[in-house]
């Protein structure tokens, strides 16, 4: 159980740690950082070394328990930045609740289990443990964010050498399978789906999802890094969160409705965590899109560019966390949305579930 | 002076002419088509053969006077489609005005003049002639849309062989120079800038622009194809137009303000013609974007993906005309916007200049 | 049974038909053309409209029986060009044999059969028929070149709507599956593999291949276009062919050995038909390559660029036919190679099987 | 004056330092390393963070005087690897000469001087100093390798803010200008061109070049890192070098001729340092290439893929140093070539200038 503050700082490159200065100016130290959640400016796909560079830069500067999650791809208007979740248990008596966070990692996910039940269950179990640590009602959880591994061609070759079939022969596709397994693990741990549904989904059915799951994959790690964000009456700080869902990649209404709820609560949006994907059906609202047939730009890059513009417009600046590939993170073609916002202490704390889907 | 109807039809590919069926169903023939303005699904850059394919498919099916403008690039949610501007001088007595269009082409733009005064003046003169044909007040013009040539590496080599320096050594950059010259020609013909300003702008200053100019470049033609859209009291049809400006690539407010004006007039948006670009400063609202340093995806592709999502959200479907590279088409980093809308004849016709920038 | 000449003409773009002038200058007419085999300058992947443009340009200019095969992708040094196989039964008494060709098409390949037994068998049967027409010994066949369809996202969605599982969910991957089925059909018809081996290969085993198969896939057709090239003692012309295999993507020795055989026979290389691919193992000669983990450039583009340089160096010019994706067209990571060459009539005709693998 | 050994080690990623193990196994320590010259697997263009990651990983592990040069882009068959130049002054009496190296850095190159005379002169002066240190005849120098900065969009915006015009508005183009300035500085210091020629070349004329210059640009540094390789009679080791020139991007003969010289001297190729570029004329040997009109893949990536295949074929493995963008590094469209080879001590040492162009 840790109350948190959020520090969002633009970066000049993946290896920019000037956020540490802002952290220090705010009176905190690197040891107080629970998680660094960043958007870096690579392609967000398999060979995105901007993520690796960011992780290599940040990891040695943080405490041993902290996690890093770097999501590549700042297509379109998106601004590279980091979000620091900083432990802060100062008690502000004007608030009867506040935002809490917990972080952890699964054991190493062996390539054989990537995108499969082993990964799903590892995520489920680690999230479950974090929920116990947080001691919050499941309904008060608004985001479970996971960074998970992928299969490299070295992994795939090594598995073939052992006669083991990888979940995919294609490194880019392995990212999707990894995100799927992580997201289903989250949905399981939140009690949103049952085991049978999870297994059917893992096998390819897109009928189950969580609007609180956000998973991104990368070559820079072999475990899953996990962050859970929730509200809790056990702390007192001005941060709140709500979650909702974009039903397709230009569902501006979902974002503006959520913003209206925040405004109605006297809040100010501090950050949006949004998942984006191209509709697997090849159409959106009945019209053909071309993201899946573009052999020059991967579909996740298209989706981030599109959704990023909407999120930036709603937040008012482009330092938003928009991550591509929303398998089981919101309905197919849509994406999960978490809004972290700050309320004026003068404003009455109210239930925040009205806008949620 | 020709009153027009607008037919917007999704396409299954650049060579899809099923719009001709819709045209026929509406009682018109290909000879009635003034212009086919399409979005095709190539990269929108130099080697975009989706434009050439569309032009090769459509040109022989239209009358000799008709023009085609194919703008490549349907990044993100954008839906490939064609917009047919169909001559229709039927008189609807419930309307005291309506939308008119005129089309034409400049003479061939020699490579030596591409991106230079020769092209600018050719566009200026052809637009001026079209304005005379239309016989409308300049303030009633809401869109001048141009398709203009670019320099291929063959052109550049040929010029070097003659000892002539091309406006750019880089084929992709030549598209920007061509759009710039066209747009300044438009601004001149609309009386928005003077000759000195135009020349300074042609030399690189981004201080002059038109919010009614929309230019796209391609290898599939050697003249400039030009369409002028205006309102006129000399015809009576339900179409109207207004123009405004996005001040940056996520200026959703500009689009939503325009939509509110349309709604206030009892109108329904039929099409958005929007130019998109990445801010040449490298920042938007003070935050860094990465469109200009992404060596994998050209900046125009990023910009279309971002702006396309906003336009689709505002129109409610993704068959919107969003074109990349907005040199002198709206302020730097922004883009010109034209909204074509349809009013209910029951609704009182009112001035439409309120929302314009 | 048709003796053929080969006319290789560079193109200024996918819609360049100046080869017709060279054809006319050579005394032939478009009706004499059996096949146009071209390299066009698109991405060679799913959304490559350079192929469609070329086909749309050439098809109406040729006789009803002629086929076109356009292979996209002229990466690296490769020069866009067309190869016209022109029927020519003039008898040159100085030759006791010559090159013959036959062309045909399969029935439409329904999406349900794409990449599956149905496609494989359709190719097998059509090739078998062409071999009968040619009346040559199987050993005298040196190239079976196929252009085959792919799955678009529209196809995939339509199949899902009918509850049918496509051979792949990924449009780019469907190209590989289509090439595989075509190539196994070729290998079957040439008696190089048996049915069981073919079926195992179709299911994913890369242990069977033909060094005479060359398949490329595209969205521009729904049947498979097929060309068979062989030598025959029934005609008398100066063209000959041989085939061999690159064992990996920089197996220059294979090409230079073949060139030495040609030289030894007093011949001059007229064209190389080479398949290229990135080693599926992720390594070549024990060292890692990065073609399969590059999310910005598809692996087939990398492979064409690499192999194209070798083929150009050996031929001495870059108008070589190098096509990407060599599933079952040569061993994994390698590629089939056919050399068409011209012998000096003064030179004694000799067996050409020495260099073949 | 330092005799050197060369250790070439494949890498599993940009941050792979297993070469240190090989170094240790060979009896040396990181302090003995003069330079790490690596090929990393990014796009080799502006936003290539594989270079930054490699530099961030290696720099802290080396002595203060050592330099790193990471060249991005392992297109086609190229294998990511590092080349360690290790000081080794052991005296092998069977050799009357050997390979020597010197390394250094220029002062910081301010953005205002990037691609301009300031950078050119800084490189010239630093190379001159290194030549003095080496105390070798200019003819014995076979490679001057430079890693130089580029302009980011932040740099460009900052310069505009100060009213200073950058050498290019385009970040990718700035890489070419930086390589050009570095290469001309090298040519000056080697006495290959005079000041007037250098200045004319800097202004855009491609009539001057050095076949010993190899420059690559990156965002990961603000000085120029420089390595000079030469032969010297003052040391005794088995390494030798020669240099030559590819006259175009498939000039295999140049490489094979050099290999023949090495073989004639009883040598074995240890490494090739080759520059690659797409012919600025748009044609190679009279045929059109499409590298300059491909808006999806930058020309340097195409060129590396093509030339890399040739170099790998000649060396026999793909861990070759092929770097893209050969402005003034060999003639236009060609590229400089340095071959480092090892001679059998039993073999008589002979002059190595026979093959040089």
From TrEMBL, chains A, B, C, D:
The keyword Hydrolase applies. Pathway: Xenobiotic degradation; atrazine degradation; biuret from cyanurate: step 1/1. It is an enzyme of class 3 (hydrolase). Inhibited by barbituric acid. Its EC number is 3.5.2.15. GO terms for molecular function: cyanuric acid amidohydrolase activity. Gene3D superfamilies: Cyanuric acid hydrolase/Barbituras, RU C, Cyanuric acid hydrolase/Barbiturase, RU A, Cyanuric acid hydrolase/Barbiturase, RU B. InterPro entries: AtzD/Barbiturase, AtzD/Barbiturase_RUA, AtzD/Barbiturase_RUB, AtzD/Barbiturase_RUC. Substrate binds at residues 51, 71-72, 179, 216-217, 304, 323-324. Keywords: Hydrolase. It catalyses: cyanurate + H2O = 1-carboxybiuret + H(+). Residues 1-91 are annotated as: RU A. Residues 239-357 are annotated as: RU C. The active site is at 147, 216 (nucleophile). GO terms for biological process: atrazine catabolic process. The record marks 300 as: Important for substrate specificity. Signal peptide: none annotated. Homotetramer. The monomer structure is formed from three repeating units (RUs) that share the same structure as one another. The monomer, the active site and substrate all possess threefold rotational symmetry, to the extent that the active site possesses three potential Ser-Lys catalytic dyads. It is possible that any or all of the three active-site serines may act as nucleophile (albeit only one can do so per catalytic cycle). Belongs to the cyclic amide hydrolase (CyAH) family. HAMAP family: Cyc_amidohydrol. Responsible for the hydrolysis of cyanuric acid, an intermediate formed during catabolism of s-triazine based compounds in herbicides such as atrazine and polymers such as melamine. Catalyzes the hydrolytic opening of the s-triazine ring of cyanuric acid (2,4,6-trihydroxy-s-triazine) to yield carbon dioxide and carboxybiuret, which spontaneously decarboxylates to biuret. This is Cyanuric acid amidohydrolase. It comes from Gordonia lacunae.
